[in-house]
Amino acid sequence: MLKFHSVSKRFDDGTQALSELNLEIPKGQFCVLLGPSGAGKSTLLYMTNGLVTSTTGQVEIGGKMLNRANIKSIRRTVGMVHQQFNLTPRLSVAMNVLSGALPFVSYLRAAAMWYPLALRERACALLAEVGLAPEHLSRRVAELSGGQQQRVGIARAFMLEPQVLLADEPVASLDPKVSRDIMALLRDEAKRRGTTVVCSLHQPELAVEFADRIIALKAGKLVFDGTPEQLVAAGLDGIYQHDAPKPAPTHHAPHVAPQMLEALA
Amino acid sequence: MKSSLPPLSKDWQLTPPWTAKHLLMGIALLALLAFTGSRLEMPRMFKEIGEALGYSVGLTEKSPVADGLARIGNSLFPIRIAEVTEVSRIENFDRNKLPLFARIEVQETKTARLNTETLQMEMGVEEKEMLVEPFGYIKTVLVKMGETLEIALWATVLSILLSIPLAYYAASNYSPNKLTYFMSRSSISLLRSVPELITALFLVLAFGFGPIAGVLALALHAAGFLGKFYAEDIENADRKPQQSLEAIGAGKLKTLWYGVLPQVMPQYVAYNLYILDRNVRMATVIGLVGAGGIGQELKGRFDMFHFGHVGTILVVIFITVLLLDQFSARTRKKLL
Questions:
Q1: Alpha-carbon span A2 to A18, nearest angstrom
Q2: Residues in A 109-138 with any Cβ partner in B closer than 8 A
Q3: From 3.30.1440.10, 3.40.50.300, 3.30.70.20, 3.30.420.310, which CATH number describes the A1-77+200-265 domain?
Q4: A84 contact B CB<8A
Q5: Containing H/E element for A54?
Q6: pLDDT reading at B1 higher than 70
Q7: Interface pTM (ipTM) of the complex?
Q8: For a tag on chain A, would you pick the N or C end, based on fewer CB atoms within 10 A?
Q9: Full-model pTM
Q10: Domain boundaries in chain B?
């Protein structure tokens, strides 16, 4: 479904974000990317829909190689959920969700902000599915809580019936309880539709709980690829520990669930 | 004061937020002001204003400035509200159908006339019927002011329409390429750099006297302003919503409409209201060169030394600008 053929990315400032990465993610898999900040998780995600172009190597989605010619049509099959939700704060909830279908709407309808009935119904159905109420429809997104905003973001991402859903740290700015709810929602929605998900996370315990498969990156290289059980068995040291002799206290520690710590001990 | 905190190393030093450089810059600025001030006769201005203020409270014996201002004040006031017209000069005058509030007065004027028989100058009394409309002149001024407001409204609408494409091409993150960006930016600067009075003068030559020249002159100048402000707001808008729409391949125009416009709308409304306000004020000025509206009336009356009429016009302009200010403040509050 989604394949990375030895992709590398070197940014203009000389940072090597990814080097010679090979990955194959089958259809319908919920795949979580772990790794410290700067490991290349976001670069890998952005490469999938061409927001970042690879220096070498190629990305293959649904049997098609991503290139300049088909980038627009491929982007329509790839949904995205963002860390900061990336909604338009002053637009209504309904408009934000409907804007997820923008590639399929004529300029006239887009300008008039009046979508075809099928899309309007779909937007309402999706909003109900992600747990929002009818009274939220006309409210401005800025008035919602962080968790509700991410629900709107997920509803928007599913407007296009994406084959692949990219989630860039979708719960990084939410509290632990809401984070679990959002991850559960994301997984359920994806499983019901058979959507392939690539989701970067900073919370290993959420990865273990929700992922089918966990991929860990460190300095642009693959350091772990396996099931949650395998990760628990292997421990997190290989992913997060710095090369310095003494492990610096990481800010991930407080997030780690007790059972996780037990397993690692 | 005895501190309960442990002593720190010498590296912990707070410095004042200003340095000798700031002081030097301040001195340089003062020197510049002193130099230009002496070239522009600023000392004389302050001296004469002081004299005038002293004169008004009885401290100074005489002040040419105060005298001049008093003369202007006396000629502007009382302002003219009524209109008096000689009946014999009105075509198709119908005595039974007078305008509202109007009345006919008989005025007697003494005239010296040469008696052809005695060859002596004789004083005679001539009776003239005058039509007095108590609110006649203020009505004329209000109609002209209405025309000025119409000019301002159309100029604002046209400038908005013109500046939208200019802004799109002048926003560095939406302009298709460097050439369109440069062309758009330079036309915006050009539009802004030509004063509307000059544009109006040229356009009066092209379109003739009347509102067309006024509307176009104001619209072109304002488009230069709006184009610049619109473009800069597009550039500074939050990237996040735009990025999420780009990521699904929404295209530039739709991204602009959904990801940028809602963000910048309050600012745009504020700019448009400012331009409307500015256009109303400038529309009164460009009338001076014959581009329609109340300015034309003002110039005519000023040239005929009808200062009472000029006073009326100035008061009406002032009240209009005041009302407009209130209106735009309210609109802004509602829309934000």
A1: 17
A2: 110-111
A3: 3.40.50.300
A4: yes
A5: none
A6: no
A7: 0.82
A8: C
A9: 0.79
A10: 83-134, 137-335
